[in-house]
Amino acid sequence: MPYQAIRKNPSAPQVSASIIAALQDIPVAALSDNMHRNIGSVGLQPYHRPGAKTMAGTAVTVKTRGGDNFTMMRAFEFCRPGDVLVIDAGGDVTNAVIGGILSFYAATIGTVGVVLDGAIRDVAEIRARDYPVYARGVNHRGPYKDGPGEINVPVSVGGMVVNPGDIVVGDQDGLMAFPRDEAELLIEKALAHLQTEARTIQAMTEGRWDRSFLDALEARCAN
After folding, report:
1. Among 39, 57, 70, 159, which residue has the fewest nearby CB atoms (within 10 Å)?
2. d(CA 146, CA 114)
3. Angle at CA 159, nearest 5°, toward 191 and 119?
4. Exposure b/e, 52-84, CB count within 10 A at least 16 = b
């Protein structure tokens, strides 16, 4: 669509419900350990009350000028139940882009979380809710509503590139995004990883944890 105040692109197809359900039971750390430990956001913090499930959904992306939420508010029209609204505000924290009211609205329309590389406000209100909100910082100063912006374009949040339709996952440890075609193999590897961790914990409990791997690690050191 021609670029006026906002460039608008259709939302990508949603990820299957079975994939999302599987990811909701897997900690982000287990996924990260199976993606070379170098994928995911840096510097974005969870501000909501911790929940039992991992946030998982399909990315609807927004690129906006720092401290401006005009494009984000229009992007609500592109969100469906099960989506994660991912907002690239350039890391600017001089004005909040979203607060208690708009995060509440995002929850009422069925989105499963908001990820913002920018500032939020009404933190006490957000922390009292289970609805996932991730942001770079906090500022009481409210947003402008002037634009410009873009909807459903590639964005960067916390150094993590997110494309429209990517899977976004998050828990109290942080956030990751990855293409949907990587999900099934990643889930399989993460579940196996969790089983290995469970066996390690059992071995620790029984006093039989084999720590001989440390010898091999020490032997390869250059000093």
Report:
1. 159
2. 21
3. 105
4. eebbbbbbbbbbbbbbbbbbbbbbeebbeeebb
Cα separation, 106 vs 19, in Å, equals: 22
Q: What percent of the chain has pLDDT over 70?
A: 98
What sign results for the dihedral spanned by CA atoms 52, 176, 28, 135?
A: negative
Per residue in 139-187, pLDDT (tens digit) is 999 999 999 999 999 999 999 999 999 999 999 999 999 999 999 999 9
Contact 148, 71 (CB under 8 A): yes
- Give the whole-angstrom CA distance, residue 54 versus residue 38: 19
* Tokens (6 digits) for 66: 């720092």
User: ω into residue 148 within 30 of 0, thus cis?
Assistant: yes
Alpha-carbon distance of 185 to 34, in angstroms, equals: 10
pTM attached to this predicted model? 0.94
Distance CA 125, CA 17 (A): 30
Q: Which amino acid is at 202?
A: Q
Task: Give the C-alpha separation, 50 to 132, whole Å.
Answer: 8
